[in-house]
Design goal:
By secondary structure, this protein is of the alpha/beta class. It is 42% helix and 14% strand.
């Protein structure tokens, strides 16, 4: 039986890098952005629809619900799965704890303004303010809510800061292994492969920009000024949201 853990992080916080590194270990696999939060949420909604209420076969329904992780990861050849998604939002956390009583969370964190800047730098939107508001209302905002709720509810978590991951990847990955009680692995931090898991890679052609490309020759922190990409009003608006 595979053990399932959870990666709750901000986008543009080093998720692809972390996954690429950990996935060198054949015994541990980090997922891409999960679809399972949405699958479980939609299943729960189904219980309130007429078709289910008209014939409430709960036992059969729970066969699906209780085996979501087992069935989805059936063909993943490893002992440990780290599923990446906003599992800590109040709704998702409630659903998850009906399946796993004491889940463990890895929080990968980068300051909100840095995440916004990273999006703007790579996407180059025409309307920067509109795009920032969209990100904060959806992608980044949902992930931030997830992280803050995990901390608020005093769940079992470890925080990995993006800057520490880039500057000291060996220490940070071992920190994760210790937290999850997984044996250490001799990772390489040069000539890194692009993110791949279960023989599948990201198809970023469906996105606004190549958001899942990493430097494969080395791990390096790209330095840039937030003020070069975000206006003072945007910086002021979103400057006090960090954990």
């Amino acid at each position: 039986m595979k053990k399932i853990f959870f990666l709750c992080s901000l986008p543009r916080a080093g998720n692809t890098l972390l996954g690429s590194l950990i996935n060198q270990n054949k015994n541990v696999k980090v997922s891409a952005n999960t679809i399972l939060t949405d699958v479980l949420y939609q299943l729960c909604l189904l219980q309130h629809k007429e078709i289910y209420l008209n014939f409430p076969d709960e036992k059969s329904f729970m066969n699906i619900f209780n085996n979501i992780f087992k069935n989805y990861y059936k063909d993943w050849d490893c002992n440990y799965i780290i599923d990446r998604g906003p599992w800590g939002t109040p709704v998702n956390l409630t659903i998850l704890k009906n399946l796993i009583k004491k889940p463990k969370f890895i929080i990968l964190y980068r300051p909100v303004l840095e995440c916004l800047t990273s999006f703007i730098k790579i996407e180059k939107p025409v309307n920067v303010k509109e795009r920032c508001d969209e990100l904060m209302n959806e992608t980044i905002g949902k992930s931030l809510l997830s992280i803050k709720n995990i901390i608020k509810e005093k769940e079992d978590y470890v925080i990995i800061n993006y800057s520490d991951l880039v500057n000291e990847p060996f220490n940070e990955i071992n920190k994760i292994y210790k937290f999850l009680n997984i044996e250490n692995f001799n990772h390489t931090f040069e000539n890194i492969d692009d993110f791949s898991v279960n023989n599948v890679k990201y198809n970023d052609s469906v996105l606004s920009a190549p958001l899942h490309k990493i430097r494969t020759n080395k791990i390096d922190f790209e330095k840039y000024n937030i003020q070069d990409y975000l206006t003072s009003n945007i910086i002021k608006q979103y400057s006090n949201l960090d954990i």
